[in-house]
Amino acid sequence: MRGENGATIVEERLRELGARLRGPRRLRSDLLAEARHGLLDAVDAYRESGLPAAEAQRRAVAEFGAPAELAPAYQAELAAGALRGLSLRVVALATVAFVAGDLTWQGASWDGSPPPAAYQLLSASVGWIWAAAFVLAAIGLLPAGRSALRGRAVDRAVGTALTGVLALGVLAGSALFAWSIGLWDAALTWPPMIIGAVVAAAGYLWLGRAAHTWLLATR
């Protein structure tokens, strides 16, 4: 049976391992919990074979491995999880943007001349940027067991490209919004435009947190 004094060495080893890991908090906690269960099972097995508690802990921890040896594999899993999390958010926000983008202007009382060609080009570019982000995110969501299709280097390349495209999308989207305000004075009082701006800002922050987590996990 497991006792409170049967986990001191185990917990110390897990603290050492956890201190080396960066990435999504929930996944990190799950990985450490899984490691804890495995270690405690090993301790129980050694205890049942007749070893004292302290020796059972030492053997289980020695068999588990040193944190420096274990951390790379755990960190790779965290990086993959961070990429999946970022990709899911991109797919969700890009879908909303594709569906709701045109609705922002539905019913608007635009009575001026057509927007300049550069504005229309920027508007089209925003759509293409988000389409590229969607494709990269779809690649990032491929199943984790894909050694034949992807490796860590490819994951890193996909994540780097995705964060770069997202940064470009934020800049282009912000520029388009600012330009829209300049072309149409009533934009700041048009409810769909206001709602769209609030949703976009919240979405950018949501994506920014996920991108930051991925960058930390791959550092």
How would you describe this structure to a colleague?
By secondary structure, the chain is mainly α. The chain has two domains: 4-65; 81-217. Helix content is 75%, strand content 0%. It contains seven helices and no strands. Helix 1 (8-19) runs parallel beside helix 3 (53-64). The relative contact order is 0.12.
What's the end-to-end separation, in Å?
40 Å
| The number of domains | 2
Largest sheet: none
Shape assignment: elongated
Number of strands: 0
Low-confidence stretches: 1-6, 145-149
What structural category arises from helix and sheet content? mainly alpha
How many helical elements? Answer: 7
Q: Taking Cα atoms only, what radius of gyration do you get, to the nearest Å?
A: 25 Å
H and E string: HHHHHHH
- Share in β-strands: under 5%
* pLDDT averaged over residues: 86
- Indicate the percent of residues in helices: over 70%
Key words describing this protein structure:
single chain, 219 residues, mainly alpha, 2 domains, disordered N terminus, transmembrane
Question: Any chance you could write out the topology, listing elements then pairs?
Answer:
Elements lengths: L7 H12 L5 H24 L4 H12 L2 H34 L16 H24 L11 H32 L7 H27 L2
Helix pairs in contact: 1-2, 1-3, 1-4, 2-3, 4-5, 4-6, 4-7, 5-6, 6-7
Task: Give a short synopsis of this structure.
With 219 residues, this protein is an all-alpha fold. It contains seven helices and no strands.
